[in-house]
Amino acid sequence: MRALAYLWALPNTLLGAPFVPVALLSGGRVRRVDGVLEVHGRAIAWLLRRAVPLAGGAQAMTLGHVILGRDAAALDRCRVHEQAHVRQYETWGPFFLPAYFAAGLLAYLRGGNPYWDNPFERDARRAERG
Fold it and tell me: Which of 17, 91, 105, 130 has an alpha carbon 20 to 30 Å from 97's alpha carbon atom?
C-alpha cells in the first residue's frame, strides 16, 4: 500500500527531486526522515526566502516526498507541518497542486488570505497542534 502512495505522489516528487543536487552543490545536505527526503542548502534557503510569495518567504516547503528547508533546524521545526502536506500529496496525488492553488484562490475571492485561509494549510497547522 505504501508503494502506491509513493507512486500516486510521484509527479509532485519529481518536481522536488531536482532540488537535491542544487542543495548538495550549495553546501547543503539531504537526509531521509519518515520516508521523505529532507533537503537544505544555501541555494534552497535563498529560494525559500525570495521565491515563495509570503512575507519573509517560507521556512520549508513540500513537493511530494521532498521537503525543502532553509536549514536543518528549520526542517526540524517544520517537520510535523510538512509531513501533513506529504499526506495530502499522498491523498490527492497529481491533483494536489491544482487543488492547493484553487483553494488559495477561492479563499482570496472570499476575502481571505490565500495562504492562511487555505484549507490545506489549516489542516497542516492542526497537525502541528496535535
Answer: 130
Residue 126 in contact with residue 42, Cβ under 8 Å? no
Please answer whether residues 39 and 66 qualify as being in contact, where contact means their C-beta atoms are separated by less than 8 angstroms. Answer: yes
Is residue 75 classed as helix, strand or coil in its secondary structure?
helix
Q: Are 58 and 51 spatial neighbours (Cβ–Cβ below 8 Å)? A: no
Q: In what order do the strands lie in the sheet with 60-63?
A: 29-33, 36-40, 66-69, 60-63
- pTM recorded for the entire structure: 0.95
| Tens of pLDDT, residues 68-81 | 999 999 999 999 99
The per-residue pLDDT for range 14-27, each reduced to its tens digit, is 999 999 999 999 99
Domain ranges of the chain: 2-129
124 — phi, psi (to 5°)? Answer: -65, -35
Residue with cell 472570499: 110
**66 by DSSP, 3-state: which?**
strand
